Amino acid sequence: MNRSRYWALLFALVLLASALVWVGGQRRVSAGTIQPDRSSLALVPAQATSLFGLDLDALRATALYATWQRRNPIGKHDPGYDEFLARTGFDVERDLAAVTGAAWNNGAQPALLAVATARYDPAAVSAFLKEKGAAVEMYGGVELLAPDGRHTKPGQDYPALVVQLPDQPNTILAGTSTAVKQALDLRAYPAYSVLNNQALLGLAQKIGAENQVWAVSVAPGAFLSQRLPQAPGPGAAAQANIMRILQGLQASTVAANASNGLRLLAEGACASAADAQTLADAARGLLAMLRLMAPANQPQAIELLNALHIEQQQSKVTLTAAIPLQLLEELAQKPDLLLPHSHSHAHPQAQSRRHR
Questions:
Q1: Closest Cα to residue 267, out of 251, 279, 256?
Q2: Which of 194, 215, 239 is the C-terminal boundary of a domain?
Q3: Which of 131, 197, 290, 345 is the most exposed place for a label (fewest CB within 10 A)?
């Protein structure tokens, strides 16, 4: 197997999948829909072009989360985290309840914001971080912490954290400093929050309530095309056409449900039916090539690729996946199953081992 060619194809598939995850359509996935926390949304500026949500309390109740946690316990072999937990009582794995995030452009710079709700002692967390060297900037009577202990030059963004919000004691703000400051400003100017951005909220309100993870975006093409990594040599030519299509993407929705294995729905609305056809054909082609190049002694890789389904209808491209919990557990136990090996041979017939 040509290892560099395999990685180029895998990179291109990730690029296409990223586009579909961020680019969605208009389909309602269930009768009941998610109810994003309004107090969190009130801290997101109206110019946000992307929103995402993570219901951690609901996710912890799933078998998939239990599988992941066994393999990746937060703070494992980390004395620093043990000290943080002992001093603050804040167990992120247990006490972080939900996260609402947003992204938008502040001129040429991306603005990123996360609004988390948690069960914790704000004063204890603040004191611990400052003791460990976090720099402090006061803004509107609120402490902005720079956990790395330094700020950038005046006028430049730095990673900022607010753990003591006077009127919302169970809320944490994190993100670029400009975005966090804009969130704080909204306490005095609530009319300028994303609660009044009906185009973006309208997408979120169509996501099924059974999903623990969701994301929506309007006009995501420019944001994606500027920030996705460059493909390696063999994939560079194809990337140029993909980038052109990305720039024309118009809206996005993605929903993930981990209640029974992993179910994913992502829809992408392209600028035209021709662009949608190009994107769908490219994705199908990459999937087919990856199946042929997958090592014969790694049927889990074949099954994972077979779980992905791509459809195109007019200007819309849809990616769906239903991945069984057993397969996810096998992949968690052997994460190198998807890595190509130079002496492996292609699987003769790519067929799923399980019947659905």
A1: 251
A2: 194
A3: 131
- Is the same domain home to 42 and 190? yes
What 3-state DSSP class applies to 260? coil
Structure tokens, 70? 């066994």
The conformation of residue 31, written as its DSSP 8-state character, comes to S
Q: Three-class SS of residue 86?
A: helix
Query: Per-residue confidence of the chain (356 residues) as pLDDT tens digits?
Result: 444 444 444 444 444 444 444 444 334 334 488 888 999 999 999 999 999 999 999 999 998 888 777 766 655 557 888 899 999 999 988 999 999 999 998 877 889 999 999 999 999 999 999 999 999 999 999 999 988 766 556 667 889 999 999 989 899 999 999 999 999 999 999 999 999 999 999 989 889 999 999 999 987 665 555 555 555 555 566 656 666 666 667 887 899 999 989 999 988 888 889 988 888 888 888 788 888 887 777 788 888 888 999 999 999 888 899 999 888 888 777 655 555 444 444 444 434 444 44
Q: Do both 130 and 117 map to the same domain?
A: yes
Q: Does 218 lie in the same domain as 152?
A: no
Among 126, 138, 113, 120, which Cα is nearest to 164's? Answer: 126
Q: 65 with 146, same domain?
A: yes
Residue in this structure with the two tokens 């169970």, named with its chain if needed = 170
The answer to whether position 286 is within a domain reads yes
Phi/psi for 257 (5° steps) reads: -125, 120
CA-wise closest residue to 160 among 145, 139, 182, 142:
145
- Print the domain residue range for 96: 37-194
